[in-house]
Amino acid sequence: MSLLAYGDTGWGDELFFATLMTVAVALTALSNGFLFAAIFASFKLSNNKLLNLIGSFYTTVFRGVPELLVIYLLFFGGSGAVMYIAKIFGYNGYIEVNAFLTGAISIGIISGAYSTEVFRGAIQSIHVGQFEASKVLGLKKKIYYYKIIIPQMLRLALPNISNVWQITLKDTSLISVTGLVEIMRQSYIAAGYTRDPLFFYSFAAVLYLFLTFLSMQLFNKLEKKYSRGF
Amino acid sequence: MDLMIESLPRLISATLLTIQLTLLSLFFGIFVGAFFAILRLSKNKIFYLISYYYSYIFRGTPLLVQIFIIYFGLGQVEWIRNSLLWVVLKEPYSCAILAFTLNTGAYSSEIFRSAFETINKGILEAAKGLGLSKINTFLRIKLPIAIKQSLPAYGNEMILMLKGTSLASTVTLLDLTGVAKHIISTTFRPIEVFIVAGGIYLLMTFIIHNFIKFLEKRYNY
Fold this sequence. Notes:
A: 230 residues; mainly alpha; MetI-like fold; B: 221 residues; 10 helices; 83% helix; 0% strand
């Protein structure tokens, strides 16, 4: 237990901040994912064949390719792309892209592919009558989307968003390969330092279980709140 | 383009390891999943709790943690190193398969359980009414229905497992992702390698997807 002491003698404070980092990356990735999902779900639902194709391409590729491969692509490709742009402006030095950003974007792209399907499914399961009624009432497209369709959609999507969140949270462990100090990376450092990998990796598992447990409770509460009257 | 053609043979031979890992883990995982699904459905409270917590823990933690505990963690325990288990646990290959099997077993047990739970009671009553023995009811009625029910979800699980095997590269195995990473880090041309390796993965998911679709059609009645 002394291994987990708070302060210089133990790894308690390091692991605590690493847990915060995991939550921060996961939240950023999830919201990035929502952004992608909003774009690509509307692509998939549009009547334009080309946009449909782009939407399907996105979800197929990023749900079919391992997360680790996507992370490597952005980790090695990200700094290359930034350096290429910097070269145009006359800067020739080495630029390393922030590990947090790499992680949040790569996991965000993957999480977005899952969210796209969730959003699309939720919008499609809203009754056609709702769309027709809004049209008959003469509501503007923007207003009926924001006030009528999206609130209903979110309620329907909530259970699946909870799933996407769990996947995203667990995927953040893979960012440790880029050196970002989140739970996995911190456990790796501590395990190497103390030569006690069993303890630290098991403790990492406990931390993840704690996070998934907490979020499950939260989502259950939200689901209850938003299914009032149904 | 040159790099894509150049790296193709190496990536394809690495794909064999990925396929091997996927198939072996899925094969063992079916038995583990079925075993825990039966425990979960039993009336014994202890069996139920064991199965519940098994699936809760393995589904609630990242696969990476599970591999690291098995590969790095268990080797630290003295009595494991002196026991027969060490034959399995000292190799990264068997450690990876063990971790994948336990992981996919947890997900599969949930899939199988819910498949058995959704079997219509009327069908079972009809079987009883016809005087079918318990074994016959299980083999000829419950099992076919459960297989059909679990196919779509199990297909997804197969694809997740295929993607999951990429983590074998973190314990020094040179699977498709491992080799791809190696090529990327030596050539610094991630896009080309990503296209080839990602293409191979997509081809495999496509095959699994269609295989499941084919099975679904066959089991449809």
